TrEMBL record, chains A, B:
<dbReference type="InterPro" id="IPR016163">
    <property type="entry name" value="Ald_DH_C"/>
</dbReference>
<dbReference type="GO" id="GO:0004350">
    <property type="term" value="F:glutamate-5-semialdehyde dehydrogenase activity"/>
</dbReference>
<keyword id="KW-0028">Amino-acid biosynthesis</keyword>
<dbReference type="InterPro" id="IPR020593">
    <property type="entry name" value="G-glutamylP_reductase_CS"/>
</dbReference>
<keyword id="KW-0521">NADP</keyword>
<keyword id="KW-0560">Oxidoreductase</keyword>
<dbReference type="InterPro" id="IPR015590">
    <property type="entry name" value="Aldehyde_DH_dom"/>
</dbReference>
<dbReference type="InterPro" id="IPR016162">
    <property type="entry name" value="Ald_DH_N"/>
</dbReference>
<feature type="domain" description="Aldehyde dehydrogenase">
    <location>
        <begin position="38"/>
        <end position="289"/>
    </location>
</feature>
<comment type="function">
    <text>Catalyzes the NADPH dependent reduction of L-gamma-glutamyl 5-phosphate into L-glutamate 5-semialdehyde and phosphate. The product spontaneously undergoes cyclization to form 1-pyrroline-5-carboxylate.</text>
</comment>
<protein>
    <recommendedName>
        <fullName>glutamate-5-semialdehyde dehydrogenase</fullName>
        <ecNumber>1.2.1.41</ecNumber>
    </recommendedName>
</protein>
<dbReference type="GO" id="GO:0008652">
    <property type="term" value="P:amino acid biosynthetic process"/>
</dbReference>
<dbReference type="InterPro" id="IPR000965">
    <property type="entry name" value="GPR_dom"/>
</dbReference>
<comment type="similarity">
    <text>Belongs to the gamma-glutamyl phosphate reductase family.</text>
</comment>
<comment type="pathway">
    <text>Amino-acid biosynthesis; L-proline biosynthesis; L-glutamate 5-semialdehyde from L-glutamate: step 2/2.</text>
</comment>
<dbReference type="InterPro" id="IPR016161">
    <property type="entry name" value="Ald_DH/histidinol_DH"/>
</dbReference>
<keyword id="KW-0641">Proline biosynthesis</keyword>
Length: 483, 483
């Protein structure tokens, strides 16, 4: 089957669900989606042995590649669905968790009375009021492309179904055996449900992806999850919007008035909690005051003690001269200009001394990737309005990254931690959805305009003239009357 | 100056405004933007003679092209800023109107307490609560590409400034003299304001556009306004999200239970109020019942009397046989398959008989462009919940176009009529913003996470362990404390 066929089939399945579920109210439609998710969970549980066998084949083949140095051990552990206790169970639990989330669909987010009703005049019948509702709806067909972890197939399928979308999934070639069985379970479950079988489909080859990225007639959004190189190549090729992030070049800035303990503990967490995560910091900006306050030295000792290699600008390195042991000194090097544009994803940190919050902001504007940036400064007081010129204020207003944090670790930039239950991914884009994206990022809205009364609602009636109607443009209670 | 320079300059100007205005509160920042808009209006008023002279040159050159059949007369009237009474004044008034709209920026749309504060324990200082705010912010740099109307430069510049964005504008070559003077006025006004001069820039050549469409480093969104061909070519080339619409293939469906007068009056308005508008209907679907009810004949007579050429399927044409005068008959032809995929933008209408609302829905799903579709049916009663299986319900739930109307003309799909004051354009996309897009479509949001209290906020503190902190994920009142 060609990529075009897959894409058209996905669009047809999407249209079919829209029609199918349109006979129900919103609650009944959500119930049908929940039921399909329960079928998926059951199908996965039933096929556990088969999935495990397929997963073991993937792991075995990957291990051969590790042996010849063609694959990292890390990747094998990401592939393996069964060795780590609880991983398989938590994948299953994820399906149920998504099913239980409130439906993101059919939510009225704005209601406006465009015009009041008018009595019959002359040849014109009485017209009722004209009311406009903005109501959330699915986006349509999603193309999701990801790398090693086979459970992402199940996660994304669940999210797509819950949000009323169709999905085409493509996993990494390393997980192909697992992906094939997982996908078959999903298809079988969909066949048993009320939803169309082709609502979720998988494709295997890279060539198909190339072709699908040009099927903007049928595919509405691409969600890549994986390496920088993967995301960048998809951004280049795709003819439809892409949601995701290539780089996570996060920075922490330690302002002049930051308390030492707060700064040190937060920076350590931001760097060390999970160094290969996209929300770990890669750049540290320190206010010049801390060259003499001692904070920078304390912070450097703590980072070096944890094995972090510091790529220091001249000024930050000069500060440390004479204060370091030989072992520590071996972890300090001179920063190259490229270091400030590098996502290390490892125990490396680029360090630069700056003279002000403005200089920190400028550095981040020039080098950041719009993911998450942090200022560490004098503690805020709860509820108190900070003055417009505090460093925290300038920083949060000036930095246009998707997440801007005051006195908190960059590691909080995460859908679960933000309270979204689950996450589609983190987006550094500047349209549609940004930061950690939950189910809300998989829906959009449509406008429903409803007239009541017997008379026609014509735009012409609002044109200047004897019986010209007037606009009212008045907010209504946010209630969508058909739900 | 190269396209890259223009794009980089725009990004720098954007970053500069973010920093510049960050010293103020939200109200002061909006005041600075309003003041810049007032400067623009004053600069335009002052340069009226010069603008008029430039505009006359454009009109004269266009008229030469009209004389040799290379340009339509319509286009000349769109070019002409001064002949039609009130056009110039309404362009100026538009600047003031946009200035007066409520600021779309710094609006907190969600506030969550991620975790409550914790007292000091062991080596850990007391931490205050950790609060997450989702706050609206500008998108960044917009590239706006449009055709003839020179006043669009002023409209879009106003909208971009009010919403905190930077803009690069490219008008049609027909309006080049007018555009040059208008742009210069805007730049001069910006120089006199507190905003950076390069916040709004213009480019002239097509080649520059090609290059700019690849500057995804600096440009965040493209807004094309113009012909189908223009929008399609931009969609193909752009590496950044595109907001707009290529086709406006709108349909009206007359259901079995639609009252005749309501249906006829609404369809006439939808087709005739402004036939070359994107929200005029191009397709009419009529329930088979109306072949015998007489409604279709009445409607056809009314359309033909207004000079509409009907491209009829066999069934709808057979109905009219014997009922038409010779003059009427000359306006009726057999529909080709392409007619149902054609945006006529003229007094042409493709007509098809369908057997049910489902068949109408399927037709629209296959042939529509996602702009605006209308159902005409039994009048709804105000406030009453319609049963889940009414035709209106099935239609509004099944059709995933950006605007779906019940008993109202498609011509209401318009930013002004929707009550948005002004419109950036109409989007048929399925992400970010859809339908008539007002200032809200030019903003996005960022997450601001704020800790209070002296202790560090680390993700590690929430990991399983003795002093594990708990998530609270509780909604806060939507108040952003720094505003």
């Amino acid at each position: 089957m060609s990529a075009t066929d897959v894409a058209r089939q996905a669009r047809e399945a999407f249209d079919e669900t829209q029609t199918l579920l349109s006979m129900r109210g919103s609650e009944q439609a959500d119930a049908a989606r929940v039921k399909a998710l329960e079928c998926i969970r059951a199908a996965l549980e039933q096929a556990r042995d088969e999935i495990q066998a397929a997963n073991q084949r993937d792991v075995a083949e990957a291990n051969e590649l590790v042996a010849v140095g063609k694959l990292s051990k890390q990747l094998v552990s990401r592939l393996d669905l069964f060795s780590k206790p609880g991983k398989w169970e938590s994948m299953l639990q994820g399906v149920s968790d998504v099913a239980r989330l409130p439906s993101p669909l059919d939510v009225c987010t704005r209601a406006t009375r465009l015009a009041d009703g008018e009595p019959a005049t002359g040849a014109r019948a009485a017209t009722g009021p004209l009311d406009l509702y903005r109501v959330t709806c699915p986006i349509g067909v999603l193309l999701c492309i990801f790398e090693a972890r086979p459970e992402v197939i199940v996660n994304i399928a669940s999210l797509a179904i819950k949000s009323g979308n169709a999905a085409i999934l493509k996993g990494g070639k390393e997980s192909k055996h697992s992906a094939a069985v997982l996908s078959r379970c999903i298809s079988t479950a969909l066949e048993q449900s009320e939803l169309p079988r082709y609502l979720v489909q998988s494709v295997q080859s890279r060539d198909e992806i190339q072709a699908l990225l040009h099927e903007e007639r049928y595919i509405d959004m691409v969600i890549p999850r994986g390496s920088n190189a993967l995301v960048k190549s998809i951004r280049q090729e795709a003819r439809m919007p892409v949601m995701g992030h290539a780089d996570g070049l996060c920075a922490a800035y330690v302002h002049e008035d930051a308390p030492e303990r707060l700064a040190v503990e937060t920076v350590l967490d931001a760097k060390l909690d999970y160094p290969s995560a996209c929300n770990a910091i890669e750049t540290l900006l320190v206010h010049r005051h801390h060259c003499t306050s001692g904070l920078w030295c304390t912070l450097a000792h703590a980072l070096l003690a944890a094995g972090v290699r510091l790529h220091c600008d001249d000024e930050s390195r000069a500060c440390l001269d004479g204060a370091l042991s030989d072992a520590e000194r071996s972890l300090v090097c001179a920063a190259t200009p490229e270091d400030f544009d590098t996502e290390f994803l490892d125990l490396d940190l680029a360090v630069r001394i700056v003279g002000s919050v403005d200089e920190a902001v400028q550095h981040i504007q020039q080098h950041g990737s719009g993911h998450t940036d942090v200022i560490l400064c004098k503690p805020l007081h709860e509820g108190a309005a900070t003055p417009g010129t505090s460093a925290a204020d300038i920083f949060t207003r000036s930095i246009s990254s998707s997440s801007v944090f005051v006195n908190a670790s960059s590691r909080f930039a995460d859908g679960f931690r933000f309270g979204y239950g689950t996450e589609v991914g983190i987006s550094t884009g500047r349209t549609h959805a940004r930061g950690p994206v939950g189910l809300e990022g998989l829906v959009i809205y449509k406008y429903v305009l409803r007239s009541s009364g017997d008379g026609a609602q014509t735009a012409g009636a609002f044109a200047p003239g004897e019986h010209q109607r007037a606009w009212s443009h008045r907010a209504l209670d946010n209630v969508y009357p058909t739900l």
